[in-house]
Each structure stands twice: as C-alpha cells, then as structure tokens.
From TrEMBL, chain A:
Stored PANTHER family: GLUCOSE REPRESSIBLE PROTEIN MAK10 (PTHR21373), N-ALPHA-ACETYLTRANSFERASE 35, NATC AUXILIARY SUBUNIT (PTHR21373:SF0)
A Pfam short name: TPR_NAA35
GO cellular component: NatC complex
Domain of life: Eukaryota
Segments traversing the membrane: none
Similarity annotation: Belongs to the MAK10 family.
Subcellular location: Cytoplasm
Protein name: Protein MAK10 homolog
Organism: Mesorhabditis belari
TrEMBL record, chain B:
Pfam family, one: Acetyltransf_1
Family designation: Belongs to the acetyltransferase family. MAK3 subfamily.
Ranges of residues in domain N-acetyltransferase: 82-234
Chain intervals with Polar residues compositional bias: 34-63
Region (Disordered): 32-74
Protein name listed in UniProt: N-acetyltransferase domain-containing protein
Originating organism: Mesorhabditis belari
Alphabetical list of CDD domains matching this protein: NAT_SF
UniProtKB keywords: Acyltransferase, Transferase
GO molecular function: protein-N-terminal amino-acid acetyltransferase activity
InterPro entries, per the entry: Acyl_CoA_acyltransferase, GNAT_dom, NAA30-like
Cellular component per GO, a single term: NatC complex
Length: 755, 259
C-alpha cells in the first residue's frame, strides 16, 4: 500500500496541482512569478486537460487521514460560493487612507456621535457571539489607536474601548462559564490594549467630558447652536458610559490581577485578597445607567445612512473588510452588525443586569443552595449574557473558592448541612469527629461537596443545551456524594455502636447525611428534565414514561426527602431548649431563626411539588389515552422500541442505579400500565381531567409563596386549557381532531391544542 | 466511458480550473479550457431541490405552484418511483445538484466523495420511472463507536427530495431503506442532525421513532440551532434489561406502525 506521501504526490502529479497552486499564489500576491524560486516553470495546462480524459470513471485517490472533518472543512478554492479569498481586498483600506482624506475629523459632530454609537453597537454584536475581527475591529480607530496622538474624542474613545474590550475578554475567558458558541474570544490584535495606562485614559475621558458638558451648557449661544450642544452632551454621555462601565468592572472583579497573571503565567501574583467594592460599583453603575439612558434617547441625533445601519461601512471609520485576511479560510459570509436602535437600548438592559449584582448578591450567598438558585435565576434573565454572567462568577469567586472573597465555600457547605440536617456528626457532644477515620471521611466529603457546588455554579452561564449536558456531570457528582455520605453514616453508626459511644447515632437523627445529597441530586434531575421539555427534546409518544418518571419518581422522592427533613428539623426546633445552658441565647435564637426559614422553604417547595405531581399524572394519563385513541402514534421498529427509548432516556441517571433500578419493567409495574390500558381511553381521559382539576384547585386556593406565584399562574392556564381539551375529547365530539402540544406557558408542561 | 458521463464527472473541476487559469493571467489558456469544457458541459438538471439536508439549514420545503405542472409529465404517485443503489460517479453531479439546490452554503465535492465513495451501499436514490431523473437521495455512513463492545453507529448525512415530489413518502422510504441496510450490517443506533426550524424533517424522523437526544446551540454557520436525533436498536451498555420476551410496547395496536 502506498504511503500518505506517495498518495499525495500521486494526486498532485495526476492533477498538476503543484503548478496550479503556485499560479494561484502568484496571482493572489500580485506578482507574476516568485523570483526566489529556482525551479524552471513548465506550462502543463494542455497536458493536464488532456490527461483528464485518461482517468477512469470514479478513479479517486483517498488519503487515509482525510477524515470526515477534513472533508467537511474543505473548501474548493476559487469557487465564489466557498472561497472567502476569491474577492480581492481593496489595497487602500484602513486608517492611513482615512487620515489622508481627513475623514476622521471632528468637524461634523453628528458623524462623531454616530461613530461612537456604531462602535458600541459593534460591542453588543461581539457580546452576542460575533467575532472581534468582524465587529469592533472593523473600526480603524480602534485598530490604530496608537496612531492617534491627539487627545480628542475619537482618539481617547478608541483607547478606552480597547481597554474595555481587553477587560471583557479576560473576564469571560477567566470566568469559564460560557462556551465558544456563546462568546467568541478570538482576538486578531492581542497587543492593542497596552498603549495607554487605564488611569491616564480615565483622566483624559473625564477632561473631554467636562469640556463637552461645559460647552453644552453654555447659555449665551445662539438658538441655532442648540442642536449642536445637544449632540455635545450626548457625546459626553457616551464617554462617561464607557468610563463608568470600565470602573465598575475594576471595582467588581479582580481584573487587574487576572491580567497580570495572564501576561506572566509563569509567575502568578501571590494570592491576594480581593473583595468586590460593592458601594463604589453601585455608584459607578448608577452613573453608567444614567448615561446609557441618555444614549438610548439620543442615538437618533447621530448621522444616518440612507439604508439601515448594516455594517456601518457608510461611516469613514468603519471598514468591514479590514480584517478579512485575518479570518480563517471559510465560506464568504457577510457579518451582520446589530443596528443602533436595538444595540443602544440593549446596553441599558445590560447595565441594569450588572447593577443587580452589588445590590442582590450579598443576600443570596448565605448558603450554597440559595447561591446556585440565584445564579440560575440571573442566568435565565432575558438580558443575561456571557459577559454579565462572567462578572457574576468573578464577583462570587474573585480569586479562589472564597465567596465574595470572604468566606470559603466549604464553610458555607458545612453550614448548609447544619441547617438542613443538624447532623449529630457536627455535635461536639457525640465525639464522632474525634475518630480519625470519620474525620478523614468527613473532610473528603466536604471537599468533594465544595467542588460539586463550584461546578454547578459554573453550569448556568452557558446556553441551555450546554447547561443540560453539564447537569449530567453534576448529577453524577451528587450521586457519588450520596454514596460517600452513606458510607460515612455507616461508619458513624459503627462508632456509636461501640461500647464507648455516648449516644445511639441512628436514633439521634433518623435522618442521614445521604438524604441531603439525594435531595440535591433530585433537584438537579428536575432541572435536567425541565430543560429537556423546554428545549422540545421530548416527543409526544414519550410523554407517558417521561411524565411518569418526572412526577412519580423524581418529584415524589424529593417530596418524601423534604418531608423527612421537615419532621427532623421541626423536632430539633422544639428540643433546642434543653441545650440553652451551653450556648448563648442569641446563638440559639439565630439558629432557630435559620431553621424556621428552612422549614418554610421545605413546606413551600412541597406544596408546589404536589401541584406539579398532579399535572404530571394528568399528562401521563392523557398521553396514554391519546395513544389508545390513535391520536399519538408510537413508532415501533420492534416490540422493544419503547423500552430502548426509555433506557436511553435514563442514561444520565445511571449513577442512581444502586439506589433505584430505573428500568422499563419497573415503569410498567409501578405505573400500572397494563391495567390502565385495559381500562380504556375514556377512563384515562376522565382521570386526567381529574388530575388537572386537582392541580387547578390547589393553584387557585392554595397559598403559594412569592417564589412560586408567577410559575403557579402559568400552570393554572395550562391546567384550565387542558381540562377543556380533554373534556372535548372525552365527549366524543371531536373524533377527527388532531392534537398538538405547545410549551408556551410553561417550560415543562404543554398546552394541548386541537387542530 | 461516454462523453456525457465524463462531462458530469469533470465539469465542476474544470470550471474551477478555468477560473484559476484566468486569474493567473492566462487568458488564452482560459479560453482554451473553456472551449474544452463547453464541449463537454452536461445539460443543467431539471430543477431538483432539497427537502431537507441534515447537516445544513435549507430553504423552504414547500413546492412552488409553478412547478406543480411538471408533475403532469412525471410520476404521480409512489408506484412510479423506484429506489436504486448508487452506481458510479456519473450520478454524483445529479446527487449534488439535488442536495445543493436550497443549501445556504454548499458542500465541497470532498464531502460528497467522502461519504459516497466510503459507503456507496448507504447511498440510495429515488428515480422517477417516467422521466428517468433522480428525485430523491439519502447519503449515510457507518462508524464503530465502541470497538470492544462491537457497537456500530449509522449516520445519515444528507437527505433530499425534489420539491415536485414531496408528500409522496419518498423521504420516509429512503430513510427506512437506509436504516434497514444499516441494521443489516450491525448498527446499534442511527444518528443525524437537523435544523430546529426544519419541521418537515423533524416530523419525518419523529414518526420513525428517532428521539431528540440533545439540542446543539448555534450549530450552523447561519447561527441556527440543531437537534441531534437518534434511533436506537440496542440498549445502553449500562442498562440491565429483562429478557427480550418480557418486553411489551405501550402502543395499543398489536402491530405498531410508523404512520
């Protein structure tokens, strides 16, 4: 068999590509022939086309290392649909030309204003996944900021933007809470930001802002100048926006330490303390927001193109083709820039998102569970981006695992266990931690728990599909923690069973450490399943077993775990009086207060779980009825096709196997499937209506806690709608109607619609 | 080999080479090459278009009203369509034209050749018996997933049906035929990606029992999301199933079907 080299040579010999490749090279470089080459060139065009006729049909040279990736990445050179390099780049592109033509002057302020807004629009496009080469760095001023010697609006703004870009890029890269499809970190000009110190830029910006504002406020100008003064004020707002946003980043994240470490990776900065400066950040962001609102109100004062904003090529400072040679070989694609009318209001929302951080985070990080809930809620907000989410991550964990740079996450984890279970292990009276074996197991478990919570905190920055993927790892982590905790419980029990044991461990709590982790695992499984429905991954013919699993396994177990934890904590609350002699009254009072809060949380969660379980039951029965009626077709290649689908859907939970045998036989048995099928679709429809109605009554009459009100209102709509649709089916008045499912009100439960 | 067959094979290559030669300054050579290729240029294919390609977003899948009349001279129903295996390179141009029609960004010739030459038995064509033209195609591949466990995966790379021939079950038949072939050669699962907004493809594969394993965010160059679809013929390795005879379907019909 021929070697790779031989194959390649043979291919080139047959196709004459060596010569052609050289010709293309010569053509694209603008020279007729490479002078440095000593080869004697021979024209083989005639021979080539003649030789083509000698090839056998289908004759193909295949290199073994030419895989699907290479095949699909390959482009056909000189094909206008594939080769981005086919179109020549204009030689007179860039800053030099703009300066030569005086295009970057500040004579016409509306154009200056439009240039600033276009650059901010490019910033938004970049934050939304665009590449720097096709967004911000199509502005020649940014790429050549070092050539602007004057301290003027455009020059200083260029330096400030470069600095901001560099900070944002470093923050997002360091936080690692997003994926390549969320944010493009590629930087074609990595050395740009070091042209001016950030303090100098800040001073220059402040000076220009002050000058513009004083001119804008001058009252002795003629009325004709009023419009110009308004534009001046608007420009000052843009400069202030960039300045305060940058300052807020510096106050909220350890960006300067990160940059120093990135520059000199071999000598990282000694672990210093960094704590977000919440007060200054709030002030900076409030000013920033005020300026952003001004920007949103005044972007229309800038120059306008006859068409839409498009790629801003109509502004002298923007050259969309500036970096085409820096892009990888790929299909020709026109980069789309988000227009100003959408981009500038987006910045207002972005600053509002950032402003939430110093105001909300300190209250949300009392324990890992609430911290994760906050991170998730923040990530799901409409205007959450890779940038805002990364700032949150670096604020939470600025340099290491110390939350807000203060308390170690491991301490919060231990507190969390104390609040949820008050495990006897942590009661010094038991002396359990005096045993070296138990102490080691405990330390290892806390360490793994800390890592598991750190990982979850990162999960919620990515896009939803990636989050779902990563949740599988977290579910696995918590399953393993549950097993570790179980071993620790057993070890404690053995210790307590010994003659020297001061108490019976098993009787003390009746609730084991493992319970805490199994509940966390179930909460993650809930998120995973909800995300699966939300992303439209579950087909209607899967609703039967998926809703059964969601309601009858995941939620029921979670409910049961909460019930046990509730009883245990409630008992502990009433018995704390006996220990008051040993601890101060304030400490006991705080402890009781935390326990009462936890009890309320358990109660609220369980109340909502009961509602959702009823809806799941309704969905399961309705889907089964619709299958029996032939309204949902179950595709079957073999008799076990459904079992195979079930088995593969359970793969993410395989770590639970030791606790629960998640197989199809169990599903059939526990759901009483055969009996329900033999009862017929009418009974199932009636049962489904009853289940939805039960949920409806609880939603209408129950007292939902604030956290669940919005979700409850959505579920109420789903229940009411589905009751009507199922009653119509049940009445037999719609025999020919088809049904489809819309997840418009709730991510996990569809509205049934008739067609 | 006939002139017509040869032209189908070389026309695209020659067109590219002409552009190369022209750009390198050889005007005369380009003219010569042009003469050569024009003498062999095949007749443009008769308006085939793509119903869904599984690796790239496509345009609309609805047949244009103006094209409906063409069916008067072509097949009216599924009986007039025959399903044939890939024969040789003379068919490649027609396959490419069928698939490329509505793609926002074309596949290179290397992509087609990688799949079709690698797994010719998994390239199936639908041909209109009346007009003789290829009106549908499916292109697939095989790969060993876990060699130790003898796990094999089939991958559907492309599926296309001429817009004039939609809603005749041609796509479903092509997929079913390909799946049967893949099962015959030991596939445990069949995988593909399809654009989230391609409802026709989702419907077709959903009816055949494919499940949406995951969503792929901004998967395509145009920024669109994809679904990764999977059809399983074996349980996961970790799954402890009961003996085969105990399996039963929840499907109410004794002989479950796909439609």
């Amino acid at each position: 068999m021929a070697s790779d080299d031989e194959v390649v040579k043979e291919v080139e010999k047959r196709l004459g590509t060596l010569a052609i490749r050289e010709e293309i090279g010569a053509s694209s470089s603008g020279t007729s022939r490479p002078e440095r080459s000593r080869e004697k060139w021979v024209d083989i065009t005639d021979e080539f086309f003649e030789s083509c006729q000698g090839l056998e049909l289908g004759e193909l040279a295949i290199a073994p290392n030419f895989s699907m990736f290479e095949a699909m990445s390959a482009i056909e050179l000189m094909d206008p649909k594939m080769d981005v390099g086919l179109v020549r780049t204009r030689p007179d592109l860039g800053f030099a030309k703009c300066r030569r033509e005086g295009a970057l002057s500040l004579n016409y302020l509306p154009e200056t204003l439009a240039t600033l807004d276009a650059t901010l629009s490019a910033l938004v496009t970049w934050l939304e996944g665009g590449s720097l080469a096709q967004t911000l760095y199509t502005n020649v001023l940014l790429v050549n900021a070092n050539l602007v010697n004057k301290v003027d609006i455009l020059g200083t703004f260029g330096h400030a933007m470069n600095q901001l870009i560099y900070y944002i890029n470093n923050i997002i890269t360091t936080a690692s809470v997003s994926e390549e499809e969320d944010f493009n970190v590629t930087n074609p000009y990595p050395c740009i930001p070091f042209q001016k110190d950030y303090k100098v830029i800040r001073i220059e910006l402040e000076a220009i802002e002050a000058s513009l504002e004083s001119e804008a406020k001058m009252t002795n100008c003629a009325d004709d100048d009023a419009a110009e003064r308004l534009v001046m004020g608007s420009i000052a707002a843009r400069l202030a926006f960039v300045r305060t946003l940058t300052q807020a980043i510096i106050n909220l994240t350890p960006i300067h330490t990160i940059i120093l470490d990135n520059i000199d990776k071999a000598n990282p900065t000694p672990v210093a303390t960094f704590r977000p400066n919440l007060r200054h950040t709030t002030e900076d962001l409030q000013t920033c927001l005020k300026n952003a609102v001004v920007m949103a109100d005044t972007w229309h004062l800038g120059s306008r193109s006859e068409r839409d904003d498009e790629d801003f090529a109509w502004l002298p400072a923007f050259e969309p083709d500036l970096n085409r040679r820096k892009l990888p070989a790929t299909f020709p694609r026109k980069a789309e820039m988000i227009p100003r009318k959408r981009a500038i209001p987006y910045l207002v929302e972005m600053v509002q998102m950032l402003l939430r951080l110093p105001m909300e985070v300190p209250d949300a990080v009392s324990e890992p569970g609430s911290m994760i809930a906050y991170v998730r809620e923040y990530s799901e907000a409409k205007f959450s981006t890779a940038f805002t989410r990364s700032v949150l991550q670096l604020m939470l964990f600025p340099l290491d695992d110390h939350v807000l740079g203060k308390r170690a996450l491991s301490d919060l984890c231990v507190d969390s266990l104390k609040n949820a279970l008050a495990p006897p292990l942590l009661d010094t009276d038991t002396g359990l931690l005096g045993d070296p074996g138990i102490k080691n197991m405990w330390s290892l478990m806390v360490s793994n728990m800390t890592k598991a919570f750190l990982l979850i905190s990162q999960v919620f920055g990515s896009n939803l599909p990636r989050q779902r993927e990563k949740l599988v790892h977290s579910i696995s982590d918590f399953c393993i923690l549950e097993m570790d905790a179980d071993d620790l419980d057993k070890q404690c029990l053995r210790f307590c069973s010994g003659s020297s044991a001061p108490l019976n461990y098993n009787m003390q709590g009746g609730l084991h450490l493992g319970t805490f982790f199994i509940s966390e695992t179930l909460r993650l499984m809930r998120l995973y399943l909800e995300s699966s429905f939300q992303q439209e991954l579950i087909a209607p013919y899967e609703y039967t077993y998926m809703y059964w699993f969601y309601g009858d396994i995941v939620m029921k177990w979670l409910c049961s775990g909460n019930d046990r934890a509730y009883s245990y904590l409630a008992n502990g609350l009433s018995s704390t009086g006996s220990k008051k002699g040993k601890t101060s009254v304030t400490k006991v009072s705080n402890k009781d207060s935390r326990k009462k809060t936890k009890l309320r949380e358990y109660k609220a969660e369980n109340a909502f779980l009961m509602i959702e379980m009823a809806i799941c039951d309704g969905m399961f029965r309705a889907a089964l009825a619709l299958q029996l009626m032939g309204k949902i077709i179950v595709p079957m290649w073999e008799a076990n096709s459904e079992e195979l689908r079930f088995a593969h859907r359970m793969v993410p939970f395989k770590q639970l196997q030791p606790l629960c045998d998640l197989n199809y036989a169990r599903y059939r048995r526990d759901s009483r499937l055969d009996s329900l099928v033999s009862g017929g679709h009418s009974q199932l429809l009636s049962d489904a209506v009853e289940a939805f109605d039960m949920a409806r009554i609880q939603l209408e009459q129950g007292q939902l806690s604030d956290r669940y009100v919005a979700k409850g209102n959505s579920l109420l709509k789903v229940c009411k709608n589905n009751i009507v649709v199922l009653r119509l089916f049940s009445s037999g008045r719609m025999p020919n109607s088809r049904i489809h499912f819309e997840f418009t009100e709730s991510p996990a439960y569809p509205m049934m619609r008739l067609q | 080999m006939s002139e017509a067959g040869r032209s189908g094979l070389y026309s695209d290559t020659l067109a590219s080479l002409e552009r190369c030669v022209a750009l390198s300054g050889g005007k005369e050579k380009a003219e010569m090459a042009s003469q050569f290729s024009s003498s062999q240029k095949h007749t443009p294919l008769d308006s085939p278009s793509v119903s869904n390609s599984l690796d790239q977003p496509t345009g609309t899948s609805k047949a244009e009203p103006s094209k409906i009349d063409k069916r008067a001279q072509s097949a009216h129903n599924a009986q007039d369509i025959e399903f044939i295996g890939y024969k040789d390179e003379t068919q490649i141009a027609e396959i490419m034209a069928l698939i490329t029609k509505d793609l926002s960004e074309p596949y290179s010739i290397y992509t087609y050749r990688y799949f079709i030459h690698g797994w010719p038995e998994l390239c199936i064509l639908a041909r209109d018996l009346l007009s003789g033209k290829i009106v549908g195609t499916i292109v697939c591949k095989l790969e060993d997933v876990i060699k130790q466990a003898s796990r094999r995966k089939g991958y559907i790379a492309m599926l296309a049906v001429d817009s004039d021939y939609r809603n005749m079950g041609i796509g479903t038949k092509l997929v079913q035929t390909a799946i049967q072939r893949m099962r015959h050669i030991g596939c445990d699962e069949v995988v593909l990606e399809t654009e989230v907004t391609n409802k026709d493809a989702s419907k077709l594969y959903g009816k055949l029992g494919f499940i949406r394993e995951k969503r792929l965010f901004r998967y395509y160059l145009n920024g669109g999301d994809a679904f990764r679809l999977k059809l399983y013929f074996a349980p996961p390795l970790s799954y402890h199933a009961l003996p085969q005879q105990q399996f039963q379907s929840t499907s109410p019909s004794p002989q479950p079907s796909f439609v």
